[in-house]
Here is the input.
Amino acid sequence: MIKRNGMLVVISGPSGVGKGTICKELFKRDLKDVKLSISATTRKPRIGEYEGINYYYKEEHEFDDMQKRGEFLEYAKVYGSYYGTPKKYVETNLNNGISVILEIDIQGAMQIKSNFKEAVFIFIMPPSYGELRKRIIGRATDSDDIINRRLKAALKEVKEVVKYDYVINNDKVDNVADKIICVLNAEKYRTSRCRFDFSKFKEESFD
Amino acid sequence: MIKRNGMLVVISGPSGVGKGTICKELFKRDLKDVKLSISATTRKPRIGEYEGINYYYKEEHEFDDMQKRGEFLEYAKVYGSYYGTPKKYVETNLNNGISVILEIDIQGAMQIKSNFKEAVFIFIMPPSYGELRKRIIGRATDSDDIINRRLKAALKEVKEVVKYDYVINNDKVDNVADKIICVLNAEKYRTSRCRFDFSKFKEESFD
Here is the structure.
């Protein structure tokens, strides 16, 4: 009686919030019918990385052609390399009832929002200003000036939370993973994600 | 940084689906900051029922006055007695951060929908046509004609699912309770239910 497609789930938040750690934790769990999106990139593979597992590795002209053909849900240039989310991987999985998780920065998330409204947008909120500050300082090997610029950017990014469907406070990584799983489950029960077949609503089972 | 009101949660479904059993199971769990709505009624208290615990017992003219003053979120006449959901009980709790669960038929739910859009609407779906049929027959002490009329009504009611936010299949009562709790938790993380205070987003904790 009830049929469901997979969902595209965007996990995003300010830089330094710990999105990567959360996604790793998430896939340690026993997730049914959920995959992590595989990006295309013009960056060269590092040792231990494999085509179609970590990334789809592309030459710049290939990436360029894909972009021109509208084959990306979003793309961006980061430190001289291009990264993009191929539409096809996402769509194939969703049509097969597999949900796809996309761990992505806020700009990318907003690109997805304009291309793929039915995605679920989850914002990871830093546990505190102090914590965010510590992480940004911890990461940077740069001058105070650059740290301050990053911090200022992160404080601006935090306000983007209102454009998301859900906000989860990054207190402890396993709490966050539990909460994300809860959101994924609840979203499955949303009527807007179900196709109902009332014609079979006779002497048969509903589901 | 993030403040939340309580939510009004409407649990509804076709007659005979087992809403009452599900709500009983729900309140066996350790629910934090959740209460069951208390209705006003013109029906006389039964033995073991108490004012303000099971119902608010009203004379018909009192109920009538309340209704005229717009003090009900919804009301209906059932088997000669009036039943209504007092706005005040719901609003006081929500303002105190307590969520309120309302177990109600589809007509009542639709009244709530027009008075209280921000409520969460959960539809309990019968596990199968056969099961629904069995329950309606099991309940009725009436003629085949009345049973058939009820069954027909229930089949019509099932299609109302599309007006709800969530649909949960009533396979096993404790599964259903788990899923409802999951929905309640996920809804807490919805940005549309949060008030953000970015002014405090300085050297303090976010939450």
In short: The radius of gyration of chain B is 19 Å.
